[in-house]
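Hi F.,

I've been meaning to write this up properly since the lab meeting, where we talked about keeping a consistent format for the predictions we share between groups. The idea is simple: the sequence comes first, exactly as it goes in, then the structure tokens exactly as they come out, then a line or two of notes. No screenshots and no reformatting. I'm using this chain as the first example so we have something concrete to point to.
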Amino acid sequence: MKSLELEKVLSETRVAVGRASALIRANWDRPKTVRHKGRIDLVTETDLAVEAGLRADLGDILPEAEFVAEESYQGSGHWDSAWIVDPLDGTTNFTHNIPFVAVSVALWQGGRPVLGLVDLPMLNETFSALEGRGAFLNGSAIRVSKAETLEQSLVVTGFPYDITNHLDAILKNLGATLARAQGVRRLGAAAVDLAYVACGRFDAFYEAGLKPWDTAAGTLLVQEAGGRVSRYDQGPYRPGDPTMLATNGRIHSLMSGILAA
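Output, unedited:
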């Protein structure tokens, strides 16, 4: 897709995501109907309503693109052109009125994300990126941090819903990171974590067991902001891979040395 065409698609996607975020804000203080997909994996009526709206709106923008979204996707995991969507990343935060929630939308073409948009409706922040055009927060260019050591670095991580199946590895990595980094945080929304790496608030993010909709938009944000994304072992990362490491690039090998050990 040509650059001018992508700019037009981004503009139209902003409108679609703006409608999705408005629905989240409208439902923020209302009673929430919660259904359990797993022991601690939640879905609300708002997740479903936002996804339905995005399916319609994004389908109008690029009808030929497949729709890959958290609450409804039943495909094979292989696509040529697709919208990869998390309608409400941070559902558990949403149910507890914690503002770290996001609408995450990526356009995947030619084996990579070419457009990424992460909107934080309760914090009035919109992160966006186009391939080769840089990353932005509310229209201003952003860059990853300049931290060069782990002692200077604030790291963020997350835990999979089937945490009991991965507890030993999670505790090993967390303990090793805590011992060497300036600090470790856990916000509960991978799209927010990646956006915050892109703008330099965090120096690194790592997590296992993420899905394509968790990471597709954020991957492009980090890369376009000058950072690096890989698996724990520094191999190339594709959304849906079992592990993900995103950093400012300067501390990437250091973090990999902890996580891949």
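Notes:
The chain has a mean pLDDT of 92.
The first strand starts at residue 34 and ends at 36.

If this format works for you, I'll send the rest the same way.

G.
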